[in-house]
């Protein structure tokens, strides 16, 4: 009985991790026969999980939209509370768990019956979060994109008044903005899209086979893409400290660090204001030199003068 229960939980986890599963692949993952998979699927259905099946030689399974909430997970009130909490966390009210909240929210909303979805929507519309200035993103858009990433489903959407087609891979949250890492089918290359600049809601496209990730790795690619945006000013700073020390004080979305030698590193950054760049660099508490642009040196001298003047004893 314990072995069967553990296998059912493993099967449920697999069904939630991807949209479609061939029966033979599920059997291989679970180490059982396809006949056992069929029996386990029937057990999940008896427990209230809406598992759909496809016939044919390559017949498979998917977790469908539930007519009733599965009884072994949450009751109605608990499900609504969790959905509201996950939506709040997904919009950045709890730092560090935004992406995890989205994955959990996508799984939960997939099986929520319509009556509970209406309750969640009603409560969400009545809540007024007091957040700081900056672009906002609809949680429904985040949920839809997270589901498309998980299902490997292409999307069509409007971006700055232009139609785009893409294969979505990852959602990125920088603390201020949300981005989508996707393969742009029109430009045949990887791109990052700001979600607050999407003009039209994404429409589902054809399923796709995941491509190899960017050669430099997702983390490095996204960091370089975000910091190489067409800012008004570009700066190169020489820090007199090892790269691993400077990286502890540097957000990967603030700029790109480059190893120079054992005791120093370069910092490449951009911004709309030289004062902001000067403050960001100075507040690290690490000795540095401005290599470029020359006008940043003048801004730092002016900032130092203002700070010195403010600290004088009258």
TrEMBL record:
The keyword Transcription regulation applies. SUPFAM superfamilies: Winged helix' DNA-binding domain. Keywords: DNA-binding, Transcription, Transcription regulation. Residues 4-63 form the HTH deoR-type domain. GO terms for molecular function: DNA binding; DNA-binding transcription factor activity. The keyword Transcription regulation applies. This is DNA-binding transcriptional regulator.
